[in-house]
């Protein structure tokens, strides 16, 4: 039982379930990509894990090694729970509101995808029998990036004294997973107080992180609406600022408090400058006011859903999950502004708050076609880290730039190089996202300013990483592809195809912008080398089996003993050593299959079918990154029922907590995988060589699906019904595309409806024992 | 300038050279394989690094990981500097003897390979002008394993008051290399006092190591010979026991002190039992007396040199180095008695005191043919660790037993699995040593009791590690061979050939001892599987280049940019990342070349010549394990001058401190490499399939060489002169062997002299730039 009530536009949890709090806090997290608040209860306790995050604000700590090596990163980075401004405590006749005591007659929390707010309604009876109704509504502004606000209302059922305490609280005790004493020490009270000030209903606290030295400030202001006779107090000291209001409220009366929060951080700015910044944010928020913030939020989201919504008929729970996914992806990114989009967004401390390659390969495709400014900003972050990526390449003895496996600042933070440093595809993935964004938007300014430089520096990496063999083939040896159950292999197909595209995109960008190429010291010889490397790229193929080798030698390796593997031994990495996983034909996550999605132009339909069958039977999906991609290829080869099951797995990863770690935050790439599964899977959307094309097919079980996208300023909808598809312009100019290979031009006000050809006969596909996706049966569907 | 004076039977350092102390302490270390004393000055200071080691006594500490993984070892082990009994301080009229003050008119230390003692003679004048001659002689008994003794004599040149303080001192401050705070904490005062007792001239201290819980005791007793009027005191407390003697010595008189030391440790025995043990050792030592101990030592060494000596004419420095090497190998092992032979012996704390595979592949061959009981005892240690090796195999999902990469107790202690866990050849190496020892001695009792079980359990490991491919070939994928600049590769030739031999030896042992096979639950099917795997073993060969591939794909990898590598960038692992080393054709140490030595039967002469030329030009010799093996193959393919250079490099690794780390202890495997280079290189000794054969060739520069060995109870000498070789029985029955392929029988009292054929035309061999071995020019030779 998931505990979630099904609604098309909101997500509601009824009741409390203390043991599920940490999980629901992740799901109910609010963010705008700059500031993130986990969905903790207003009163702070009971709680799962408090969490207030500022994108890019981290603490540093030494990375430990039992045996060190040249070029190993020495410093780790971990996201910090910053000053918590969410806390509003209530005392009812000196009895603190605490859901674990007294009696809850009603308790609901709901996340509304259209208002962009988290609402809470509680009817509570204190242990001494006093009854109050508490309503709160919380938002992190999607329009004012430094601002959050909480509307808090208490209605007692009889005359009662109420005291509210509204806090800014730094260095809350937080549990860590790390068993390294140095990491734990770094995260135990990481904030050092620099400044505390309170006046009237307003307070500011400023801190810096002990080791990283990054500075932050948080401020709060309040509007209080109560009966006469209220007595208030505001104090600030070190790690705590507290606004207290005490008042007698008669039956039928109410206490209404609006709390405005302003946040900021900087590596450069002084404490007074940071204080000024958060006070200015507060002033703006108060000027807008609570209702104004609500209205801005609604306008923003109406616009978002106009370009991003996905509708499905026949599976209401999936409908909800898809909007939930889109809402969170948007939230994680929209105001990130040259900061990374972490793997968990700002919903929890999982992965230490690091960003990975899956942002570029899963999250940015969604954004590029829905909120392209957010995709651009995330790529600007990558661009801003180029100096660190160049430095890393140099340490590694390579030319160009090598982007990190995991990072907050842009510096490599992984302590296990075979699964990180060796995963050079990261740099190709970033370039893929650059080319995709530029193509989807036509944003030449970005390409000239940032994109081309990324393409060029990563192309340089590839020519330095690879070499031409005796037969003229261009080999990239000793690298790790997306599949984390293989490492340090020669000629990983995914890596080589991504590198091939990277090299060609770089060459084309230099052709398009010769002045930019000049600025980057690109010579004609260099461009020729890129093209030669791309043309010679080695793509291992097992002629005996008629399938591609995920990497050289893969298909000669021993098969995994799936029959000797118990269902509870998954994920395998927790129960089997890397050495044994690496050398056998067991695949953690889509690797060759991902190559067949993003570089589908490099495979024939027959190869796709054979490869998909071969690799699907060896893929255990121990990663949340996999199901969405498997849905795409399953749909392409005609296995629509299977594709639907994979899609559902991606879509429900977080809501059903399939990996049992949602308590540490949501899986952004898996949420994006749901979009990818719908749009690239059942919609058949591809953008090879910059051409947008579709091949929609309705999965069994759905009577209709529709999705929206933007492409070079045009917003359009693709509406799929049994047997036919309608392409419709929502706004902007005409759309040139393909429908199942046939060129189509869709003009404004002239929707085009086309029939759907029959799907191909799918290959025989089997998953490893116990690893088939759950058969999707919509509740009541 | 090495600082060493050249003598055929001893090693002398004249003068002090405080900055060289730590290095000379390693070279002057005394040991019997159970107890080791670094060659510190009697008075304790100045010092490089104090060091008293008990083989197998270690402290445990957590192994840190930035990113942990299933099956990673959690506990590290580090050799501990135990209670120091070497210290004898002298006060000359209240001025402590300290070589840094006053004036040394003479100071010599010398290690005597025939007496097995370290002698010191110092003429010192105190800052106030008092002059004394101090002579000391120190031994670690080669016959009484728990015993060491020091003969200490002071002769003043005028009437003077002398005070001697003789200590047992625990928890001396020692510097550590570790940058891990947990390791440093574990090694900072690792000993906890359990017991201290003193009576008369005798004292005992008992301690245990804080984390490992291992217990140890040290005891001392004294004989004092002085003028009348001596005043003595003995006290013991916690970490210190001190015997003090004060006496007025007239001009022409002397103070003579004999200090006896007894050591013991146990994981099981109680403190009283340990005390009894070390007191019994002392009683035995005193009963034997100083002169008796000297006589025993001499008898033991006379016997050793009878079977082990190597003579060379024409290079006196090499002559000294070869005896130095043999002396230290013997010392490191002779009374080890079911403990490991660490990589540094008991000469220093390098490698944490761990034993590695090179003990089996380099040190045990020397011992098997000279002190076979020591080889047997070292293999008994491996046998005693089988439960841990089985457990490790099980954690790794394999059958049989997997011996550790590095260990003191037998448990894997490496924190970097690609270079350790994956190096499964370790288990093949152990089996190789078992078969070699059994063959060299005919020790059937050992084979039945221990050897067969090792062979069987490692054979089981191989059949579980490998698999038959579609073509019937038996593949061993994802392993690391000896070359540490490659890792986690498929079908490493060395590994596969060692595994092949392992599988066959196991099968043959089971045929020989069916009752033992029964006891080990070996079935006929299992033996058949071993033979099938051995017969199908994949040995990668590049037909285009006509050379073996070190591992599959090796010859397709990029060449290392040697021209772009500065001489000071070696060793490369300190200046280049593993990822780049692993994926290129750069070899740290003999790997395929080692295979061509120990499995020379698997290669044709032409293959050996081509392979040697190919790999020698890609081998940078960043490991001290390599030169000896390169000498062997260089000699075999006819490159005798080059072989001599490699041999000299192996022989002088420690005396010339070529790797600049002798301060942490000697390199036992490199010392053994000198023997291997002489006996297997210029002697051409091989023992393929149990047949002993020789193919001696005198290198240019030597006018004569002779070496001695034992084989199944027969001791014999091989004397090589220009153009001819004489085989002579020293003791025991006749010897069946081959001379350059021709069968020979050598009978007692009937030496056989045979002529030497011309060497083959060597291939063109070049080393990487800056990595050729130094051209050997004997000083004055």
From TrEMBL, chains A, B:
Keywords: Glycosidase, Hydrolase. Coiled coil: none annotated. It comes from the Bacteria. Residues 13-266 form the Glycoside hydrolase family 65 N-terminal domain. SUPFAM superfamilies: Galactose mutarotase-like, Six-hairpin glycosidases. InterPro entries: 6-hairpin_glycosidase_sf, 6hp_glycosidase-like_sf, Gal_mutarotase_sf_dom, GH65_N, Glyco_hydro_65_C, Glyco_hydro_65_M, Glyco_hydro_65_N, Malt_Pase/Glycosyl_Hdrlase. Residues 685-746 form the Glycoside hydrolase family 65 C-terminal domain. The keyword Cell inner membrane does not apply. Residues 738-781 are annotated as: Disordered. Residues 323-675 form the Glycoside hydrolase family 65 central catalytic domain. Belongs to the glycosyl hydrolase 65 family. This is Glycoside hydrolase family 65 protein.
